TrEMBL record:
Catalytic activity, reaction form: malonyl-[ACP] + acetyl-CoA + H(+) = 3-oxobutanoyl-[ACP] + CO2 + CoA
Family named by the database record: Belongs to the thiolase-like superfamily. FabH family.
Functional description taken from the UniProt entry: Catalyzes the condensation reaction of fatty acid synthesis by the addition to an acyl acceptor of two carbons from malonyl-ACP. Catalyzes the first condensation reaction which initiates fatty acid synthesis and may therefore play a role in governing the total rate of fatty acid production. Possesses both acetoacetyl-ACP synthase and acetyl transacylase activities. Its substrate specificity determines the biosynthesis of branched-chain and/or straight-chain of fatty acids.
Single GO molecular function: 3-oxoacyl-[acyl-carrier-protein] synthase activity
Name recorded for this polypeptide: Beta-ketoacyl-[acyl-carrier-protein] synthase III
SUPFAM superfamilies: Thiolase-like
Length: 335
């Protein structure tokens, strides 16, 4: 039987600053009703001054290792679009701070689809026997790249980190990652972007406006693409392992906003209780979204050993992907 990557541990971390919708009404022309009705978000958490993506990543990774009962891994794959620095990658620093000397460590940048991309990458390293174990971390601090007066983005996004430990095993056991589907479409590169600060802007010699150094998103255009791409990807991945969508106990999709989650569930003909939702409490945490939602589902008893689970994400690039597995019997270490 071929080697498979198996989920062996799960951990999460949130920063200390809790920001409610009412808090935002003191800074922006908005209201709790406006935010909740359009996004489903009621609160989010943000990093204080001096805290960065690596700090959250380290905590989530430590908790995932504790959950797994393992003390070391052979690779660290960090999904993030808010690295501590443009160069170098953040993963080697995270690995060192975890006491993982000289292991393979690198970043994956696929915005909100980053965790699924990183999971597929780490699974490939294990299945090809390059390594026997890996930490996959999704961590983002989008509060650091949002324009302070942009109510369309500030109300949605929060900061956070989540991590899973993967180990070598086989496809017959719970926790084995059974299949992936990944895709991209660069024609939509301008729909989710930070225009300034990269090589394109720098080589143009154009001095960016202040707004161009912050995150921007064309929400209406993104909505339909996100629903269609995630729905189609999940259906394809489920079919590839001989399941039907009706076999799913839980869909853990990227927590973009409540309307997108409802639309994906309707497209796949899933009941509301088959779609995980935690964005009301943490917001859209980008690459951390799926592991945070997994941790919440385990902690609340919504996700139990043996459950058929699909993961789905959509992000800038455009990028999207999905994965399926039977959930293992592992504890969760979280806030």
């Amino acid at each position: 039987m071929r080697t498979s990557a198996v989920v062996a541990g799960l951990g999460s971390a949130l920063p200390p600053n809790r920001v409610t919708n009412d808090d935002l009404t003191k800074e922006l022309d908005t209201s709790d009703e406006w935010i909740t009705s359009r996004t489903g978000v009621r609160q989010r958490f943000t990093v204080p001054v001096g805290m960065a993506t690596s700090d959250l990543a380290v905590v989530a990774a430590q908790r995932a290792l504790s959950s797994s009962g393992m003390t070391t891994v052979e690779a660290v794959v960090l999904a993030t679009s808010t690295p501590d620095h443009p160069c170098p990658a953040t993963a080697p620093d995270v690995a060192t701070r975890l006491g993982l000397a000289q292991v393979a460590a690198f970043d994956v940048a696929a915005v909100c689809a980053g965790f699924v991309y990183a999971l597929a990458t780490a699974a490939g390293l294990i299945e090809s026997r390059v390594v026997n174990s890996a930490l996959v971390i999704g961590a983002d601090t989008f509060s650091t790249i949002l324009h302070p007066q942009d109510r369309t983005t500030r109300v949605i996004f929060g900061d956070g980190a989540g991590a899973v430990v993967l180990r070598a095993g086989n496809a017959a056991i719970d926790g084995a990652l059974l299949a992936f589907d990944l895709g991209s479409d660069g024609t939509g590169r301008d729909l989710i972007t930070v225009w300034g600060g990269g090589a394109r802007q720098r080589s143009s010699r154009i001095v960016p406006a202040a707004a161009d150094l912050h995150f921007a998103m064309q929400g209406k255009a993104v909505f339909n693409r996100a629903v269609q791409c995630m729905g189609t990807s999940v259906a394809a991945t489920v079919r590839s392992v001989g399941w039907d969508v009706t076999d799913l106990d839980l869909l853990v999709a990227h927590q973009a906003n409540a309307r997108i989650l409802r639309a994906i569930g309707q497209q796949l003909d899933l009941d509301e209780d088959q779609v995980a939702v935690n964005l009301d409490r943490v917001g859209n945490t980008v690459a951390a979204s799926i592991p945070l939602a997994l941790a919440d589902a385990v902690a609340t008893g919504r996700l139990r050993p043996g459950h058929h689970v699909a993961l789905a994400a959509f992000g800038g690039g455009l990028t999207w992907g999905s994965a399926v597995l039977r959930w293992p019997d592992i504890p969760v270490a979280m806030e």
